[in-house]
Write a structure and sequence with these properties.
heterodimer, A: 134 residues, B: 248 residues, mainly alpha, globular
Chain lengths: 134, 248
């Protein structure tokens, strides 16, 4: 019995590990309708998904509406960005600026401005909230 | 004697900072209260009394909230001109949320030059992108600018979109560089503190940070440009008429 348990352990680990980075079905469906394959691969990559499921990652996109897209993301990495306080957790605003700046650097000249596509695994691309007074 | 003076100054500084923080907290709870339509008259009256007290104490957040109350007209009669005048007055004094609100109000007024609105928004984007206190306002200003341009005429859109986006891009890039740089500096500082445990290094960094914050605030003051509200002169701030509490 113990032997079987030992043999199954790595398998359980692999399945659990896989589950932890597997993107939600809803995200895959929604993103596939909006992103080109290279950007979709980035959004669904294990690196992005690990960060998204832990929280604190921003995905920026430039889309000209004719199938040309440029994208970049910024995860919360304390060696790149640190927030205030004891835990030094970066704010979404800081991550947003870094992701947009990365995206702006890689997008072709003349392509539309980069905007936020997703915050963690929540797509906010087409959800334009109307401006309000402060 | 000198030590007593400096201790007294420190105590007073702590006291005023504490007071400012308490005011800000009270203002935030009032903000939440006035966001919804209030039906209980007594509660509304009490909230207005509290707001009046804060305005008398010259709390900019409370004054800004009063402008919002007048603009939205949910818990008081709507008065766009007064709201405009309040935001103008506070924005002129360098209060960032009022600068944004002024742009918001101007964007909804007819016959306002788009250049004036975008200049105001660009100023907010340039001054506050990446700052810890008002970084969110820069993002709001960026979104408001895009929203405004989307609804503007085609000629305006063609003329002003590219310069606006260039400023947004530049501000974003420079803020990103600053964020990375600040992180590197913080890592270095932390390593230094752990290694040597010198208070002097930390104090000098705090001083330089305070100096740069002061110069940024000064720059924000000097860069402020916009158009005066048409009926500004009928709301003299001196006689406390501008910040008169409504009586719903």
């Amino acid at each position: 019995m113990r032997r079987i348990g030992n043999a199954l352990l790595p398998l359980i680990g692999m399945v659990a590990g896989g589950c932890a980075t597997a993107p939600p079905d809803e995200l895959v469906r929604e993103a596939a309708a909006l992103l080109t394959s290279s950007c979709l691969n980035r959004l669904l990559s294990a690196h992005y998904q690990r960060s998204a499921q832990l929280g604190r990652v921003i995905f920026a996109l430039s889309d000209d509406g004719r199938g040309n897209q440029a994208c970049a993301y910024q995860i919360f990495d304390p060696n790149v960005v640190r927030g205030e306080g004891l835990l030094k957790i970066a704010s979404y605003e800081q991550l947003e600026l870094l992701a947009l700046s990365k995206c702006e650097q890689i997008k072709p000249i003349g392509a539309p401005a980069c905007r936020i596509f997703a915050r963690d695994n929540e797509i906010i691309w087409n959800r334009s909230a109307k401006s309000t007074l402060d | 004697m000198k030590t007593v003076h400096s201790l007294l100054a420190l105590w007073l500084a702590c006291l005023s900072t504490g007071q400012a923080l308490a005011n800000e907290k009270a203002c935030t709870s009032l903000k939440e209260f006035f966001q919804k339509k209030q039906t209980a008259d007594e509660q509304l009256k009490t909230a207005f009394v509290e707001l009046e007290g804060q305005i008398k104490a010259d709390a900019k957040c409370a004054k800004n909230l009063l402008g919002r109350i007048y603009f939205e007209g949910v818990n008081a009669p709507r008065d766009h001109e007064r709201a405009h005048a309040i935001f103008y007055d506070l924005a002129d004094k360098g209060y960032p949320p009022a600068q944004f609100n002024l742009a918001f109000v101007l964007a909804r007024k007819p016959n306002v030059e788009p250049e004036a609105i975008l200049a105001l928004l660009q100023g907010i984007v340039l001054n506050y992108t990446g700052t810890s206190e008002y970084g969110y306002l820069a993002l709001k200003a960026r979104d408001l600018g895009r929203e405004y341009l989307q609804q503007a005429s085609q000629a305006t859109r063609e003329k002003l979109t590219a310069p606006f986006e260039t400023i947004v891009r530049e501000a974003t890039t420079s803020a990103a560089v600053k964020i990375r740089q600040a992180t590197i500096e913080r890592i270095q500082t932390e390593n230094m503190i752990v290694g040597i445990l010198t208070i002097g290094t930390y104090a000098s960094m705090a001083a330089s940070r305070a100096a740069s914050r002061a110069s940024a605030a000064a720059a924000a003051q000097t860069r402020f440009i916009t158009i005066q509200p048409r009926f500004y002169s009928v709301y003299p701030a001196g006689g406390n008429f501008l910040y008169m509490i409504p009586h719903p």
